[in-house]
Amino acid sequence: MTKLKKAIAALGAVGLMTGCAPHIATSMWLKVTPQDSAMPGYRVIQAEGQVRHIVPIREWTAPDTVDTYHRLHHHGVAVESDKMAYRIYFDKKQTIDVYAKRTPRMELKDSYWYPSDEQLAAHYGDDVLRVSGTVGVGSVKYWNGSKQVHIQPVESRSERIVEQKRGKGVIEIAVKGWQVEGKKVDMTVRYTLKAGHRDMMAEVWLSEPVEGLCTGVQKVGKDGEWMDVNGEKGIALGSWGTDWPVNDTVKYAKETVGLGVYVPAEYAGQQVQDNRNSLILFRPATYHKFYLTVVAATKEDNPPARSAEEFNRLLEQWMKALK
After folding, report:
1. SS3 state at 70
2. How far apart are CA 261 and CA 150, in angstroms?
3. For an engineered disulfide with 26, which of 76, 161, 214, 215 has Cβ 3.0 to 4.6 Å away?
4. 153-186 pLDDT, tens digit each
5. Residue-range domains of the chain with CATH
6. pLDDT by residue (tens digit) across 100-154?
7. Is the dihedral of CA 178, 288, 78, 320 positive or negative?
8. Beta bridge partners of 235
9. CA 234/CA 266 separation, integer angstroms
10. CA distance 44 to 31
11. Containing H/E element for 9?
């Protein structure tokens, strides 16, 4: 038995999906084989046109040479409230992706991020954002002077479920030995989602300051709109647009979404853009805090914003309400 499988077996069935917290769920599943059916929490599901055999895990650390992205079902650790679900891609992108709900409820325990045709007909939500190589919404990236780039090369990457309680879920991604700006840096990015919320708080810890560290929002579709709200409290960046959420343009319809990131003034530095991303550089430090939010205007039955103008006003209100 491999070290990873031994770790899974030791964990048992604790916190498989929702644990004892019906208002917050965390999700991290390793792909296995039918021969692993005795492992705790073993499931057989349909996803992306495949039959998958999966088991729940709470964390995984691996060298950068391991293809963790394809070894994990839904490609990384996820956290869910009744309003929204987010996953962190477990690879060099470390990008935040979004699953939106038509109606507020918990869904990943049934859909495993990939709802079936029957679930879609039953008004389930779905993935609403095609992030590709962008910053997505609230991912932590590096600004190389002309564009955002991924977090690489590194010695190892980790993802884990940090905490799951009735009121909040905490997930994180970490790297060791990131080669950047002529030094090796360890970095941990932790995301906290509270029950009843669509927005998340993000915290970043570094072993040394990195001048080009940044976060932001991607452009959505060819005609997507940028927006920014500057105030004494900080900077909020917004993006509003319509695009296909996945490459399948037959089964799926285009989605209109609003993406927002707010960085408090004490952490916010210069604003920069490339052709696909609007970004805020962090002031050089070893700790940063910021927030992200999403509105899925066409997916949600009752979205808080249905136009770019409404979303811009929502960003202003959200920014003022955050501490």
Report:
1. helix
2. 18
3. 161
4. 999 999 999 999 889 999 999 999 999 999 999 9
5. 3-321 (2.70.98)
6. 999 999 999 999 999 999 999 999 999 999 999 999 999 999 999 999 999 999 9
7. negative
8. 230, 263
9. 8
10. 10
11. helix 3-11
